[in-house]
Amino acid sequence: MGMMQSLWTGRSGLVAHQRGLDATSNNLANVNTAGYKSTTYMFTDLMKKSISGALPADGDKGSTNPKTLGLGVTTGANVHNFTQGDPEISNNPLHCMIRGNGFFLVGTSGGTALTRKGDFNLDPGLGSGQRGLLLDGLPVQGWNANANGVINPSGTTENIMLPQVGDVMPGQTTENVTLTGVLPTDTTTNNFAGLPTSEMELKGNLSADGQSLNTKIYAPVTQTDADGNRVSNGDIQEIPVRIDFSGPTLSADGTTNQWTWTMTTVDYPTPGDSVQIYPAAGDPNFTQGALNFHATAGNNGRFGVGQPVSTEINAGASTVNTTSPDGTVTSFRLDDFELDVEKLTNMADAPGGDALETWFVNGNPTGTMVRTYDTFDEFTAWSGGTGTPVTAGREVGVRRNAVILERGESDNTGTNWSWKSSIGDAEGTLRFDTRGDLISSNQTGGPIQYEFDGLVYAATEPSLTMAAQDGFPDGELETWRIDDNGVIHGNYSNQQNVALAQLAIGTVPNVHGMNGTSGTLFYPNSASGQLAIGVANDSSDGVPSLGLGSVLSNAVESSNVEIGREFTTLISINRGFQFNSRIVTTADEMLQTALQLKR
């Protein structure tokens, strides 16, 4: 029996060391597996056979120790080593690792699993729209931002969903603008000299032939008397004008409607005169202004029906001379004239009917300041072909916004100013005290709300700057970015950085008690303790509350397998296997000797 037991003891040693070889081989096989945690195979005594028990002292005999005999070896434990692996730079914005003791969370059919692997990727579904953040095909869990861009990490975790590169973030129309600077007290400064109108904004709808619009421009006017003597030299004057449109004419290919337009004076310089000042009469270098509108939803959908193909009309410079009945020669000069028609449409049933509106943008008569800024506005996209137009969507883009300020009366308590915006019907008043500090402001109309905090009235170099505004145009997602709190941001072409989601980080009281499965996943159980979920860098008064660590982006955690240790273990296992093989052969030889005793 004794020699047979030795065979079984040797066998247990062979089996145990074979399993130790399997564990060490698996460690070496995963030396380059991201997030892999090495295991240490532990041996333990199988059991002991009692030969005799312990005897107490009796008379002149002392106590006797128990006698036992070991019966082999078995697997003691397969302990995971959770020390952190080195960072491996990947330059992938969706890759990240945890610097600390936490784990990423993924959803599986068996429940929530924990992992240190962070080479995430986006579900490669077809088309635009949000896609799930995945790890080896499993959804990564965390919290998605709501419609207002707010993330609630105290809520229930969910599968993280992200937009794809190239997906469009709708722009935001400007609703609030803050202006700061100095309004000058000296009316002789360049800000009050009165520049000729070289830029005008036009908005509204062209839907009938022969439409016209009365407006005004500010232009330098040079006059001479009947003898040819110059009476004035380039004085800025307000000149009433009329813009006449004729059309539409369908293009040869049937894709655009073309309108032509001219600008003429109204009751100037002599009542009843109608003097064409643009295009220049008889000037071969200029023709009538042309404006094209899409008649069909062409150009790959870039322009909707009724949207202008061109967004501005440039005319260069022109001068037109007229002679009044008293022989006075009057010259009107428009330099580099530009008509902005971004908001002009050509639809039979467009909102607002046939109303047209213009604003001069950078022409300011004496006594006013005009400053133009880029704000952002919504443009309607049309579709529907020859039928009734329907709103298909929207696009938010840059819109010039001219703020026109005019100084009013002063008294012994202060000075009044009035202001007006070229967008919508926003206007109001400003009141400065005798020190030049703003003491009151008001506004009527909209849609933009204006704040003039910090604006002063002083005898110094004038300035008027837009300190802040909350609009931005449509933009495409260019890349993602994960910060050290695990918040995933989207970087868009419109310079917006948007929080999209946040990674959930978890831990358990006894990490060694978790069940390890394939794919570097671990499952909490009764031995590990309950899963606790938080966020990276979670702290209370500067003291980490869960010890989850922080997130490092553009990198993954490499395997923590130590090759030198594993090769040393291989040698030890090999020697152990040899020893147990010798036990088996020795026991066999002794059995052979015992069998030969009968001979």
Structure description:
It is a single chain. With about 600 residues, this protein is mainly β. It is built from two helices and 46 strands. Strands 18, 19, 20, 21, 22, 24 and 25 form a seven-stranded antiparallel sheet that branches. A six-stranded antiparallel sheet has the order 13-12-38-37-36-15, with no helix packed on it. Strands 28-29-30-31-32 form a five-stranded antiparallel sheet, with no helix packed on it. α1 (about 1-30) packs antiparallel against α2 (about 565-595). The radius of gyration is 42 Å and the shape is elongated.
- Poorly predicted residue ranges: 383-392
- What does the main sheet amount to? 7 strands, antiparallel
How many distinct helices?
Answer: 2
Shape: elongated
Q: How much helix, percentage-wise, in residues?
A: 10-25%
Q: What does this entry show, briefly?
A:
With 599 residues, the protein is mainly β. The strands form 13 sheets. Strands 18, 19, 20, 21, 22, 24 and 25 form a 7-stranded antiparallel β-sheet that branches. A 6-stranded antiparallel β-sheet has the order 13-12-38-37-36-15, with no helix packed on it.
